[in-house]
Amino acid sequence: MAQLAPQHEVVLDFENQTLIELLSEDGLVIMARGLGLDRLFLKFLKLYCDPHNLVLVLNASSLESFLTEELCREGVEYPLKCITNEYSAKEREGLYLQGGVVCITSRILVVDFLRGQCPIDKVTGILVFNGHRVKDSSTEAFILRLYREKNKAGFIKSFSDAPEPFTNGFCQLERVMRNLFLRHVYLWPRFHATVSASLSRHKPDVVELRQAMTPHMVAIQMAVLDIMKACVSELKRSQPSLDTEEVTVENCMNKSFNQIIKLQLDPIWNQLGGKTKQLVFDLRTLRTLLHFLTQYDCVTFYNYLETIRSSTDTYAFSGHSSWLFMDSADTLFVKSRERVYGRFKLGKQSVSKDKTSKDDGGGGLEESPKWHLLSMVLEEIRKETRTNEKLEGSSKVLVVANDERTCYQLRQYLCEGGQRLLEKQLSRLNLTVDTTTSKNLKRSLPSQVGGASKKRKTDTVEEQDGDDEGVETGVICQPFLEEEELEMVFSDDDDGRMEAASSHFGLPSGPVIVLHPLSSANDNPYHMGTVLREMVPQFIVMYDADIQFVRQVEVFKACRPGLPLRVYFLLYDSSVEEQRYLTGLRKEKEAFEQLIKDRASMVVPVDREGRVGDNTLLTRELSASQEVSSRKAGGRGQEVGPQSVLVDIREFRSSLPFLIHRRGIDIVPLTLEVGDYILSPDMCVERKSVSDLIGSLNSGRLYNQAVAMTRHYKRPLLLIEFDESRSFSLQKSGSIKGEISSQSVASKLALLTLHFPTLRILWCPTPNATAELLEQLKVGQGQPDVEVALSMGQDSLDKVEGDKYNPLVKDFLLKLPGINSKNYRRIMNKIGDLQELVSLSEGQLDRLLDNDANAKLLWSFLHTQSKVTTTTRGKKRT
């Protein structure tokens, strides 16, 4: 039973094959979740961590700490460099010249590419993680285009373990490969022959335990599913355009349903009625209820359910949740309450507070059946370690659950007992306990939880076969473990709240049980691989089913042939939890099957990689100015200077700079104080999305931006860009009102145009349309000056070139009645200060302004005393 050291890992056959293929030919690797994409990626980082190379890593910002720690653990001499916005441009340039592997955000790298601070011709290659995120107009696609324009020899390699996004949309795989400038795609599903052979050679001992849910849980699950089915049917009736194959109860159980609904309803979301929107929200709520049912205790579930009902009662609006009035909802609330408070007997019938039941009375505070199953498993492990001399004193048990909250509850259960845990939960949530049911809270849960079916296997968890054997279960009301026997990555303070202690934990000598969540606080999907390598457990208890972790365990065992490992797989029988797991497996398998067909029928051009000189993918379109010049010269190509646009660096979060660049216009990234895009010496553009527009109007920021643009540029433009996949309107059709409203976006825009008559508003439905419009606006215009654009807005008191008036005084005068853009110069030329203006008579003002009406308005405003009216206890005083 000798253990292998963590560093003595066997490299699997499919890992070797993938490494060799990707080194020989650039390509996109799509691997099933959990098969070790992080291990493969780290091998490439180790290979290029040398000052003689300059390798850039994209789309891996969330994994920077993980990658750095793993490389340090493996003793890499030259560490990974991580560039953030904390580094200045000079410091970044120095880091590039030092060589090695540099992990950098896309927005910073594209700016450095355009400014020439990163030597593109000296870049050895680019590693793109999460290749499925590289869309047609993404910043990563822009970076790769700039890279291939100036570097034909460097490599591009991309990695992904999410096959489903490559099947969403028409020819999605081919489009991603075109954006990545790659010709080859390497597919590694779990059912690949090489993968199956590698993992089946050394398999862990798998014990699958299926736990029956309590009768109350079964009733609750059926009630929620009935409600969900009714909501789905109602949603299809209200929106016949929905894809009936995608909008199903099965898909509603998974998180992917949000994306399905988003894709189908976003284009018409503003046109939907309140009922349809409420149905979408209700389906999300019902999915959360199903998750809480199997994940948390009865008190937490009932408290969440009561929160839903109380919020609906408090906010009685027309689009309320109609499912609350269904018969199934009545069953849901009754059964949920009975799990907490139980039933009390009246005569011959058993009665709960909500309704009469035909069943016999029972105790309250129903414990989760999985708790007892976990206790049974840990007791079996404890007995085995005591009887096995080779395991005693060195065995480590890893218990994994879905999230931190579940781990915290399991710790309380193992250290305090189930009833104590539930009583504390009840007290903490301040749920009222009736005096008639208070006695039931002290009772133990009767032995009606149901049995657990058990089978020991030597096969993988995914492919299940064999016969079941009944295992007796019972209630454990006393603490199972002492506090010192349990290690955990979380600790609770005096208020009972959960706090993260550390992502790493020390391993004390002797038997130890470690509780660890499957989810990561820093969104690192590969952290469980690190836990396995650091802990090297002999026993793993999977309290919650997770496809990725199942495969991580398989890879972990296959890489350590001599390591004894037993896996206990706990699952509620015939539950939504089981269905979600199986649905995830099925969808991944279908995605890989579709990718295999797409790869077989895909036509890939020879010059897809962009290494040849005249490549169609790298050809930029002629700008509108160049086309006009060519037509005027009779097709002889009259010489036209390079077209350029100055772009604020904050705008590189959007796709517009990339699309402008593709139209043959050079992009110059700058930090601009005024405007987002400078098209010419006189033309400035402020770009707003719809959400940004509304927020800027409400906060007043757009007013200040309009002031700055009109002060420094003769042709200020406000560009409003909305999503092409969504319908857009500032207000509902038929609701246009004549009066001005402070709450109306249209009214605020109208006031903005009245106050700034030189400001023009442009509406664009798509980024492509925006790029085309900006290109047309540049026709016949001069090129912007970098120095002048940088100087704009540096000091609010600076005078605009050609304007001899103080802008602050000018703005103040323009706000006075009777003074406008035509006569303010007369006053500023002949009047020294405001005191002199006030001392003028109405006749003098008439001669100065040369307009009776304006003079009367200004004189009345300056000489009429205003009345201030206040109200005190219902009485008006002047």
What does this structure look like?
It is a single chain. With 878 residues, the chain is an alpha/beta fold. It is globular and about 110 Å long. The strands form six sheets. An eight-stranded mixed β-sheet has the order 14-13-8-20-19-12-18-15, sandwiched between helices. The model is unreliable at 1-7, 314-319, 344-361, 432-451, 456-475, 488-510, 796-802 and 870-878 (pLDDT under 50). The protein has five domains: 13-188, 3-Layer(aba) Sandwich (Rossmann fold); 205-210 and 368-583, no CATH class; 215-342; 626-728 and 743-791, Rossmann fold (3-Layer(aba) Sandwich), CATH 3.40.50; 815-863, DNA polymerase, domain 1 (Orthogonal Bundle), CATH 1.10.150. It is built from 32 helices and 28 strands.
The N- to C-terminal Cα distance equals 95 Å
Helix-strand makeup class = alpha/beta
Number of domains in the coordinates? 5
Strand content: 5-15%
Total helices: the number is: 32
Tell me the strand order in the biggest sheet.
14-13-8-20-19-12-18-15
User: What is the 3D shape?
Assistant: globular
Helical amount among residues, as a percent range? Answer: 40-55%
Oligomer: single chain
Q: Could you report the average pLDDT, rounded to the nearest whole number?
A: 79
Q: Give me the count of strands.
A: 28
Extract low-pLDDT stretches: 1-7, 314-319, 344-361, 432-451, 456-475, 488-510, 796-802, 870-878
Most strands sheet: 8 strands, mixed
Backbone CA Rg: 34 Å
